[in-house]
Amino acid sequence: MSTLNNPLLEAKGITKYFGTITALENVDLKVHAGECLGVVGDNGAGKSTLMKVLSGLYKPSSGSLYFQGKEEILESPKDSQNLGLEMVYQDLALAGNLPIGENIFLGREPTKNVGFLKFLDFNKIKELTNAHLGKLKINVKSADQKVEELSGGQRQAVAIARSTAFNAKVVIMDEPTAALAIKEVGKVLDLINSLKKTGVGVIVISHRMDDIFSVCDRVMALFQGTNFAESELSNTSRDEVIGWIMGKK
Amino acid sequence: MEEKDNKKESLYLKLMPYIEKYGILLLLVLMILVMHILQPDVFLSWRNVTNVFKQISWQSMLALGVFMVIVTAGIDLSVGSIMMLSLMVLAIVAKAGAPWFIVVITPLIAGFLCGLFNGAGITFLRMPHPFIMTLGTLYIFRGTGNLISGGTPISGFTDEVRYLGHGRIDLTWLGLEKSQYLPVSLVLIAVVYIIFWFFLNHSRTGKWIYAIGGNPSAARASGINVNKILIIVYSLCGFLSGIGALILAGRTDSGYPNAGLQSELDAIAACIIGGASFFGGRGTVLGVFAGVMIMGILRNGLNLMDVSSFWQQVLIGSIIVIAVYIDVLRRDLGTRK
Prior knowledge:
heterodimer, A: alpha/beta, six-stranded mixed β-sheet, four-stranded antiparallel β-sheet, 8 helices, 28% strand, globular, B: mainly alpha, ABC transporter involved in vitamin B12 uptake, BtuC, two-stranded antiparallel ribbon, two-stranded antiparallel sheet, 13 helices, 75% helix
């Protein structure tokens, strides 16, 4: 794999101001194919802001993004999706009033033409949803079930399924296990591991050392909006990473 | 014990989609039965049934527009004023001697532009809530309608202009009597409701309207241009109010300053009774139609029984409160916490 040394996604010198507040200052980040990068940091360290910059929701005040070696400017989440950059938000960003299948394909629904009109192709949505959920070994009663009827873990699984339904190359997850019951955490972590095996680059933002140390290959810490420390997982320890979060080296 | 609860819950979850979809129709059928028993000679007569449809014709357009707005978790208080302004524009253009095919288009364009103005205000001016923008335009549009007409009624339209609101489809070829005609406005209601049912349930834009009501940040994160969809929704709501104006022009043969006064509240009430949720993302076109019918039948039935209009107000108000309480219960039971 020639991509081993070239990162799939690289951010260089990202700075983001909100008025007079500096949320991010000169932050670098990179992730390779099949690799999981853990991003840790205290509340307000800039983790979520960084993620929103990567997803195209926020435009950075300065700095640049490279995807597969090419510089890209993201104007909207649509742009990042088109590149194969997918987000799983902490609040999951699912519409509870819609069924699982329609959530997975939200904004990218397959259609069929009837004359000059375009109608939603519900059969195709269902078919693709079942195939995709089956591939990820996610069990739900039916693709027609509304998301608000699902448990927290099932919702997280649907959110991850949505992020990978369109040949994602990089999946970024914000606190993927924060809202889950303990028995559901393992399933989500398994899901992340199987994503890595398919060559997807994964970025996990998490507070939980258990998550970081069971799925990540590398970990980086943000502190007050700047890069604070970074290491291969094999060269560090929980205590050291916890220290980074609190600003101690 | 826990297992028993689970069983009960799963039965409820199985039934819920049907209750959500068709429960309101049951209520409508029940009302029709009660009215029929109370007024067996009159209520289901051809004359009275067509009368109910004629009475609800323009309200049904406003309600459908407001419904789409409510699905996005918004509100449009200006539909009555949009209708009045569109009606006045129509009257002025008609009086100026424009040909009928121009006259019938003007209220649709006027209504659409009013809705576009609402949508633009809500999105570009970033009003904290659509309530505020449309409360403002409730006054602005009605004031404008009075300014351009001088605040006086303008009457007398040609038959072509009045066709949608006043026209009759003769059914004597079916062996029916001359008095047993089909009002054109009834056909119009059916056509418009079917088109919008298709739009909301089978188009991507329609799905996105529901998604925005369900979770706007999810819609945004999915790459949906939320502001664009909101502008479309408010514009369509204005357009439907314009159709309402065209129907009203036909029915009353007049543009008058008090047209549609407080009808925005009737429209909202019909949506709520029909099962649309103020929290957004919930409700069906069929439900709105049922809501409009329930209000129409209630008014008609109470009039037939000579019940004072004060009681009508009390009853309609009570139905709104009960309908929303049912919505609250439905949410409690239907979603996991």
